[in-house]
């Protein structure tokens, strides 16, 4: 006998009847609580929605819905309390995120971020494109054993500077970076030999003296 179909059950009007072998079960609908034969309206102060969910009032009934940035596996008008929530992958959404040239999309819990693939580029102000950044020097300068010239008061140095990528690096911006980094006193001047050049090796390097 299917008590649910024949309406011979004693479930509350705000409960759902489920037929079982030789019997039936009553469970309160979403927004109500009780043992199934007696269901009372719940409110957000007593309703625990769990992680990534929040309680809202719909037609004076409290229900749990997904927070912004999350979606239900099966979004229906009649929501279930105990559904599993999944993080929305904005990086594979349509239209695609981070679609500018040289960009890539990184997914985070409940969010995403765009950045540039090349370490020598950064996002512009509105994050619509990747632009080249000014050359930055990372390395060391070693003073070599060169002859001291009393008249000019010069000191010679040899240097090797390594870069991840030599695109956009030349002797002009390299010299400017040295000028910005060196502490030159007493009206001194930084001079670079005219043979300064970029040399492609296994790792791109600048060599000069």
TrEMBL record:
<dbReference type="InterPro" id="IPR000742">
    <property type="entry name" value="EGF"/>
</dbReference>
<dbReference type="InterPro" id="IPR000152">
    <property type="entry name" value="EGF-type_Asp/Asn_hydroxyl_site"/>
</dbReference>
<keyword id="KW-0245">EGF-like domain</keyword>
<keyword id="KW-0677">Repeat</keyword>
<dbReference type="Pfam" id="PF12947">
    <property type="entry name" value="EGF_3"/>
</dbReference>
<keyword id="KW-0325">Glycoprotein</keyword>
<keyword id="KW-0732">Signal</keyword>
<dbReference type="InterPro" id="IPR024731">
    <property type="entry name" value="NELL2-like_EGF"/>
</dbReference>
<keyword id="KW-1015">Disulfide bond</keyword>
<dbReference type="Pfam" id="PF07645">
    <property type="entry name" value="EGF_CA"/>
</dbReference>
<dbReference type="InterPro" id="IPR001881">
    <property type="entry name" value="EGF-like_Ca-bd_dom"/>
</dbReference>
<dbReference type="GO" id="GO:0005509">
    <property type="term" value="F:calcium ion binding"/>
</dbReference>
<protein>
    <submittedName>
        <fullName>Microneme MIC12</fullName>
    </submittedName>
</protein>
<dbReference type="GO" id="GO:0008201">
    <property type="term" value="F:heparin binding"/>
</dbReference>
<dbReference type="InterPro" id="IPR049883">
    <property type="entry name" value="NOTCH1_EGF-like"/>
</dbReference>
<dbReference type="GO" id="GO:0005615">
    <property type="term" value="C:extracellular space"/>
</dbReference>
<dbReference type="InterPro" id="IPR009030">
    <property type="entry name" value="Growth_fac_rcpt_cys_sf"/>
</dbReference>
<dbReference type="InterPro" id="IPR051586">
    <property type="entry name" value="PKC-binding_NELL"/>
</dbReference>
